[in-house]
Amino acid sequence: MQITVEVGSLKILKITVFINQLLIIEIRFTFTISKSKLMKAWNSFPMLRLVLPFMAGIILFSFLLEGAQVDLSLILLGLFLAGFLTLFLVIAHATLGRRPHLFGLVLGPLLFLLGGLLTISVCNYVFPGRLDENRLTDSHQVFLARVSEEPQVRQNSVKVVAELEDKAETMHGKALLYFQVDSTSPIPKYGEELLIHTQLQPILEVGNPNEFNYPRYLRFHNILFRGYVKSENWKSLSSGKPSFIGWFANFRSQLIAKFKEAGLDGDELAVASALVLGHRTELDQELMTAYAGAGATHVLAVSGLHVGIVYLILNSLLKFLERYRYGRLIKTILLIALLLSYAVLTGLSASVSRAAVMFVFVAIGKAINRDSNIFNTLATSAFFLLVYNPMMIMQVGFQLSYLAVIGIVVIHPILFNLIIIENRFLDWVWSISCVSIAAQIVTFPLGLLYFHQFPNLFLLSNLVVIPAATGILYLGFGLFLFGLFTPLLPIFGFVLKWVILILNQVVIWIEQIPYSVLSGIDITTAEALMIYVIIVGILVFISGEQRYGLYLSLVIGIVLMILQTVEVQEQKNQRFSTIYNVKGHTAIALVNGSEVTFIARKELYENEQSMLFHVRHHWWRKGISSEKFIELNDSLINRRLDWGDESFSIINLAGKLSDVESIKDEYINHFIVDALDWDNCQIVAECNGELIVSNQFGYKTAEKIRQAGAKHVKFVSEIGAVTN
């Protein structure tokens, strides 16, 4: 019998056989590892064993609740109680029967359920009494509001997160409010109690493909509604009782005023406030873009680096207490109190909270002469933070912060020991470089997933940024401590201003170097996880010389390349059109392969922030590498536009109808309404083909079009982007 195989099929067959062989070898090596070694390594991280199922429960139920139509709280509570009773029985049996492994088998699922239960408990759309769209009638437009976060002043409004209660106190919850800004109205303050009149609206997805899911981001912060408050529709009831966090927020404002008194202003004041105190409201968008492009954004958000420096400063200042009786105890208490106070002062972000809690455990370990395992310390800090706020795990800062520390702890020693340098300065440079590389290795997959870019010059920028940030922190604290003496205040301010000025200029220079940033990269969550598996496999191979780690990385790498090849091939053959949902604009993309023709008005195309938020993420996902812009002007209005087998007409019903009359009887696939007068709605019903109404109109106009009897009509403001 003769067998004939095509060359392409033979290659696929060889690849399949090779992958199967690698998987068999991987399995063999996995089972040849000593069971005792695995158990010993696993048992050395008790808190890690507890926090992993707990985190899994939080993540799973966070996404389950997104589409849940029933109240899951009672179901999960029953499961948790049943699990708790089972655990009690297992403990009794394990103690009497000497079977301790049973305890772990039950404790894992129980912690998983606990994570889910805590997630449900903080979601403001599950329990009765929370803000509910179905109950927000005309009688629920007056609310008692308490400003729960520091307001953010914008050009035309003030953005405020507030805790709301209706007048009858039948509903309560968080909402995002935008207060009108004018010359007479004051700005709401943190902790202030207000009486407001507003129509709350649910925060819905815009519906553009691959756009950042802002409603989900707010939902993870327990915010489901937003409202606009006119200047005449609110009044202050009282300044409110200054909460613990509110007191620190006011104190931070006083410290920022001290920066101003020392002569800082503009970008220097904004960077000093962000880097030392975690206040980022004043940062200019262009400056933030420059720091992001240089790979130095982390210094603008108070993180583990800052808290570590503060820990070293406080530890040195309080070291004299160790000479006295009970001095070590007093020093530890003061150190913990000051660290936590700094965390609250800087806004209690995810990265600051993680670092503060971690250093608290480090301080306790030092006090009792015990150096705890860093992984147990990290797991313990994560467990306590997630018990306090389960949704913190969904914050990018939380994820990046923990990954960066793990990467530095695991990878830095491996890299640093590759090269032994005798020169002290060069050894310091090599150490900082290893820290930067280690942190970048474990965080770049998330950077690609969330930010779609990679800073190619992160090594160069960190060699400047890390020492400068350290110096700015020391100068900032020196200004606060010694600035009480008037002659010293301008001296500290002068030096601090020039250090920040030089830092900003260096960062801008690095960001402007050609190819400093590799942007437009798009990967899926599954691809990011595959990259992490590859990284872990390589680390296992290098650190433990276990070949199964290398084999695993090779297998996953081959699968990833195959998936990328298939995706690129699909993108070469793609052809579609998309009408985006951009408020106040008509935006049309005609995609052919890796090329796009974009039709819109110039003010949208030149607004890079709007393009990035609404449009470019979709282009990156589709592999667009070449773009052509056609300005939407009078020459395109009310004309037939042919594109392959499709035909378009962007019609304007705000003026003369003669041009529309000439084409309405033609069969055109898609009529895109760009402008409209209410009196001219009737002609819409007379057009052949599909009618697509861009996001130029309000609710009343949409109703007029419906009443005119238009068929096959789509409103992008309601259903999101339309793709054909």
Question: Care to describe what's here?
Answer:
There is one protein chain. With 724 residues, this protein is an alpha+beta fold. Helices cover 55% and strands 14% of the residues. The chain is built from 24 helices and 20 strands. Strands 1, 2, 3, 4, 5, 6, 7 and 8 form an eight-stranded mixed beta sheet that branches. Strands 14-13-12-11-20 form a five-stranded mixed beta sheet. Helix 22 links the parallel strand 16 and strand 17 (670-676). Helix 10 (304-317) packs antiparallel against helix 11 (327-345). The longest helix is centred in the middle third of the chain and has 28 residues, at 424-451. The protein is globular and about 95 Å long.
What's the structural blueprint in terms of helices and strands?
Blueprint: H1 7-32, H2 35-43, H3 46-64, H4 73-97, H5 101-122, E1 142-147, E2 152-153, E3 157-166, E4 172-180, E5 193-197, E6 201-202, H6 214-219, E7 223-229, E8 234-238, H7 244-261, H8 266-277, H9 285-293, H10 304-317, H11 327-345, H12 350-367, H13 374-388, H14 396-416, H15 424-451, E9 453-455, H16 458-482, H17 488-512, E10 517-519, H18 525-544, H19 547-572, E11 575-580, E12 587-592, E13 595-600, H20 602-605, H21 608-621, E14 626-631, E15 640-643, E16 646-653, H22 658-664, E17 670-676, E18 690-693, H23 699-707, E19 713-715, H24 716-719, E20 722-723
Parallel strand pairs: 4-7, 13-14, 16-17, 17-18, 18-19
Antiparallel strand pairs: 1-3, 1-5, 2-3, 3-4, 5-8, 6-7, 9-10, 11-12, 11-20, 12-13, 15-16
Helix pairs in contact: 1-19, 3-5, 3-13, 4-5, 7-8, 8-17, 9-17, 10-11, 10-12, 10-16, 11-12, 12-13, 12-14, 14-15, 15-16, 15-18, 16-17, 18-19
